[in-house]
Amino acid sequence: MSADRKILLLGKNGQLGWELQRALAPLGTLIALDRHSSEACGDLADLDGLAATVAALRPEAIVNAGAYTAVDKAESDVDTARRINAEAPAALAHAARACGAWLIHYSTDYVFDGSGRDFRDEDAPTGPLNVYGQTKLDGEHAIRASGARHLILRTSWVHAARGGNFARTMLKLAAERERLTVVDDQFGAPTGADLLADLSAHMLREALQRPADADTLSGVFHAVAAGQTSWHAYANHVIDWARRHGQTLAVREIAPVPASTFPTPARRPHNSRLSTGRLQRVFGLTPPPWQAGVDRMLAEVLTPR
Ligand SMILES: NC(=O)C1=CN([C@@H]2O[C@H](COP(=O)(O)OP(=O)(O)OC[C@H]3O[C@@H](n4cnc5c(N)ncnc54)[C@H](OP(=O)(O)O)[C@@H]3O)[C@@H](O)[C@H]2O)C=CC1
Ligand SMILES: Cc1cn([C@H]2C[C@H](O)[C@@H](COP(=O)(O)OP(=O)(O)O[C@H]3O[C@@H](C)C(=O)[C@@H](O)[C@H]3O)O2)c(=O)[nH]c1=O
Ligand SMILES: [Mg+2]
């Protein structure tokens, strides 16, 4: 790929942003920003600043890994969540449209209401249960309405060795407490930030190489690891792996509980199963089982160096 092709990455230091710094690097010249960057505005709260950054750089692709991801906090911090998750993507989409750039953006299983037991397709009806999910859905809608070429990857239960996530919370709690309670009636697929970054790079490369097919490639894609689990079974998997690999943990019991007895400010969907058929059909990409990514992440977190 041409080295003078500019790719703008926002949110470079989150779980996903960090992996995208690696995965996007071979596709061109990467300009990676976070909210504190001094070379250009990368603050997602500064909509005019974002527009100015895109207008000055005129990248061929904008990849937005930044988001307001504190699901419970969003319930009482609605304005900030909306600014970062809905208004910033809207501003990026308009700027992308103006310079003909692709916009790569990420969304979530939390745009759905979680009813039923089936794996959902991209065109299944949405119905977010919480502020985070609603603001992420509003971001999707703004991008689609902008007319910009876009790839929106809806993912779920993201983990990485670097960053905050459920698996790392379980490892910490298991070291401190004898008993954990973990919900066993919410189902989904833990998805590695490394996998998501690699899927993104493959998709963007294809999109950049096939400008005539922009309309058929553009759209929403479910991008999650294969298979399914509950948070409770995921916690068991993480703790079993850690024990088998020599960790000494305080935990003796991981009690399964219904979400109704684990009160949180935000409601969460029971069924977060997403079907990746469209990713396979359009881009020929087949995500591996979730366990492979989790085990790799655990090896990175727990293996002494
Ligand atoms: N984490 C998950 O389980 C899931 C995530 N997603 C989506 O995937 C994407 C990546 O998530 P993930 O990497 O896990 O999230 P993280 O929370 O790890 O990273 C989010 C990043 O966004 C940055 N950010 C927040 N506010 C601003 C701002 N005003 N300006 C610039 N940067 C900002 C944060 O920076 P700082 O550290 O400075 O706050 C952080 O680096 C997001 O779109 C998210 O909605 C979808 C499903 C599941
Ligand atoms: C810490 C803890 C959580 N839980 C429950 C709460 C919740 O239902 C579930 C997961 O907790 P978390 O706080 O990791 O959940 P949450 O932050 O809602 O995770 C979500 O983040 C956003 C950004 C997404 O887009 C989603 O895909 C999803 O990954 O586990 C327990 O049952 N026991 C515990 O000890
Ligand atoms: Mg969380």
UniProtKB/TrEMBL annotation:
Residues covered by the RmlD-like substrate binding domain: 6-301
Single annotated GO MF: dTDP-4-dehydrorhamnose reductase activity
UniProt keyword NADP, yes or no: yes
Cofactor note: Binds 1 Mg(2+) ion per monomer.
Catalytic class of the enzyme: oxidoreductase
Transmembrane annotation, as ranges: none
Pathway membership, UniProt: Carbohydrate biosynthesis; dTDP-L-rhamnose biosynthesis
A cellular component term, taken from the record's GO annotations: cytosol
UniProt EC number: 1.1.1.133
Gene Ontology BP annotations: dTDP-rhamnose biosynthetic process
Named cofactor requirement(s): Mg(2+)
Pfam families given in the database record: RmlD_sub_bind (PF04321)
Known catalytic reactions: dTDP-beta-L-rhamnose + NADP(+) = dTDP-4-dehydro-beta-L-rhamnose + NADPH + H(+)
Function per UniProt: Catalyzes the reduction of dTDP-6-deoxy-L-lyxo-4-hexulose to yield dTDP-L-rhamnose.
Entry's family note: Belongs to the dTDP-4-dehydrorhamnose reductase family.
Protein name, entry field: dTDP-4-dehydrorhamnose reductase
Protein source organism: Sphaerotilus mobilis
